[in-house]
Design brief:
The protein is an alpha+beta fold and about 180 residues long. The protein has helices at about 5-30, 35-40, 85-95, 100-105, 125-135, and strands spanning about 60-65, 120, 140-145, 155-160, 160-170. It is built from five helices and five strands; from the N terminus they run ααβααβαβββ.
């Protein structure tokens, strides 16, 4: 990816993050002065003035064309996924998600209430992955993470409604949460 393309992608990712934040804030503000606790039990309805061009109304698309598949991580995991991992863990999920809108993808939460699939600020991922994004000229302020299973994650960039795969992480090494 050329520097100019990377700059455009970063700008687009920033714009989308602002749109998502705005959408989340609009969902929290009760319409017509209704108390927030009263809205929690009422069924959701379409908001007047909702942006029809929002990413959340778009179907998910994906590409693996720009995936980083060269070499391995310092923890020993190859960046190139195996055929078994692709066919058994990654592709079935992508085929499932491409039938959904981003709003439907955004809904699932874990038992602890954390979003299953979400943006992460790039400084939150491991330093090695941050440097690798710079090396492959794919750095952005945020990176998107899909949860594929217990530890398995799929990392990449969401450009409008298209998810561009960067890494498959079967060991949760890019964002380690277990104590060393």
């Amino acid at each position: 990816m050329k520097k100019s393309e990377a700059r455009i992608a970063r700008g687009e990712a920033k714009r989308l993050a602002e749109i998502e934040k705005s959408a989340r804030l609009r969902e929290r503000i009760p319409a017509g002065g209704v108390r927030l606790d009263e809205t929690l039990s009422s069924p959701k309805t379409a908001r007047a003035g909702e942006n029809p061009g929002s990413i959340f109304g778009m179907r998910m698309e994906w590409t693996q064309d720009g995936a980083d598949l060269i070499d391995a991580w310092s923890w020993g995991t190859a960046r190139q996924w195996s055929e078994d991992d692709w066919n058994g863990n990654v592709l079935p999920k992508l085929q499932e998600w491409e039938k959904l809108t981003w709003a439907e993808i955004d809904r699932p939460s874990s038992d602890s209430g954390h979003k299953m699939h979400h943006n992460m600020d790039t400084p939150e991922i491991c330093e090695e992955a941050q440097f690798r994004l710079l090396e492959i000229e794919r750095h952005a302020d945020v990176i998107f993470r899909f949860r594929l299973g217990n530890k398995r994650r799929l990392w990449g960039h969401r450009i409008v409604n298209k998810f561009e795969i960067v890494w498959y992480d079967p060991t949760h090494g890019i964002y380690p949460t277990d104590p060393d």
